[in-house]
Write a structure and sequence with these properties.
This protein is α/β, with parallel strands linked by helices and about 350 residues long. The chain is built from 11 helices and 11 strands. A 7-stranded mixed β-sheet has the order 1-7-6-5-4-2-3, sandwiched between helices. The protein is globular and about 70 Å long. The structure holds pyridoxal-5'-phosphate.
């Protein structure tokens, strides 16, 4: 089954924008650029010139990192752009729907609203540490369910979807829906990437980001990994020159092995700090529950979330209140050891006041 057949008909028929040719050692009078190479920054490709239509070296480097072929990967402006591209490419406005677990990353819903695609939310199993409920996801599908987003590890709960469960979902929706596995936090967890399932499961697509474990949130760089056919189609939807030259060059440089080794060390540090912090926080009397986490954050439930948010903010420590979907629940990102000290001292004042 070619998954492209599930996309909007006009998108299936779309061809990529015919951008001005970019050929080395030529005089470029074909793109209405300025001949003035400015003095801002020191880049291999001067900023008076458009960036590459698609950053090929970066694409190859990310494909190596994410263990796929280059033609199975599209570089995107963070995985946020990939979510938007996918929903726009597959969902007919006012007709198709997108399935998500609840709670999960809110941007799936946000981009669904922009495309006027219904978002059907399927509760996770709260009593089972918010496990993603694959049976409920399968049962909630309609004939217009084009995309199922599975965030693993899930934001904000920290729970991963076991591979056997993912396989069940992929098989159940084999020729009817795209299953998008958002692996934004995978480096912090125990499950391996689903990338090796791509050949056998053409309805699988994977989102990766450089914003978390690789420490490049400010660069806005991510990727969709999918069948070459699907990537070809998404390539036609994405704007030409989507990735700016400074971003391309700085991320290309970061893909060197030395930088990657440093990022790996940083991930190990965050995992150790997460476990230490969770153990300390669990002992505060006002903390009712600390959920296990496979990400660089964890979720807690407290007696009075408003007060915790207020007291930590007074100490200039910002947490994320999830009260609107999970009463009295707060998500804590794991920072440096120094950051944890600040957080814990703010929480200690609450413990002393016997919240
Ligand atoms: C689950 C998940 N997916 C995707 C993103 C978007 O990341 P970015 O656009 O920075 O790649 C986030 C950001 O927090 C996230 O939590």
């Amino acid at each position: 089954m070619n998954i492209v057949k599930l996309a909007r008909p006009e998108i299936q028929a779309l061809t990529a924008y015919d951008a001005a040719a970019q050929v080395d050692d030529t005089i470029r009078l074909n793109a209405n650029e300025s001949p003035l190479s400015g003095s801002v920054g020191k880049f291999r490709r001067p900023l008076n010139r458009y960036p590459e239509v698609r950053p090929q070296r970066l694409q190859a480097a990310l494909a190596k990192r994410f263990e796929c072929r280059a033609d199975q990967l599209l570089v995107t402006r963070g995985s946020s752009e990939a979510i938007d591209l996918l929903i726009r490419a597959f969902c007919i406005a006012g007709v198709d729907n997108v399935l998500t677990s609840s709670p999960s990353f809110e941007m799936y819903r946000h981009f669904a609203i922009i495309q006027n695609a219904e978002n059907i939310q399927v509760p996770t199993l709260a009593e089972n540490d918010f496990a993603i409920d694959v049976d409920a996801l399968i049962n909630a599908c309609t004939s217009n369910t084009k995309i199922i987003f599975v965030c693993s590890p899930n934001n904000p709960t920290g729970a991963s979807l076991p591979r056997a469960e993912l396989l069940r979902l992929l098989d159940a929706r084999k020729s009817s829906s795209v299953v998008v596995v958002d692996e934004a936090y995978i480096e912090y967890g125990t499950e391996s990437s689903a990338v090796d399932l791509l050949e056998q499961h053409p309805n699988l697509m994977i989102l990766r980001t450089l914003s978390k474990a690789l420490g490049f949130a400010g660069a806005r760089c991510g990727a969709v990994v999918a069948s070459a056919d699907a990537i070809g189609m998404l390539n036609a939807v994405q704007a030409p020159y989507a990735l700016a030259t400074p971003v391309v060059e700085c991320v290309e440089d970061a893909m060197q092995s030395v930088q990657l080794a440093l990022a790996e060390q940083a991930v190990a540090g965050v995992i150790a700090e997460r476990e230490r912090l969770m153990a300390v926080i669990r002992d505060f009397s006002f903390v009712k529950k600390v959920w296990p986490s496979e990400a660089n954050f964890f979720l807690i439930r407290v007696d009075n979330a408003e007060l915790v948010m207020q007291r930590t903010a007074e100490q200039k420590v910002l947490l994320r209140d999830f009260g609107c979907s999970l009463p009295d629940c707060i998500r804590i990102s794991v920072g440096s050891h120094q950051d944890s000290k600040r957080l814990l001292s703010a929480l200690e004042t609450l413990a002393e006041a016997r919240l």
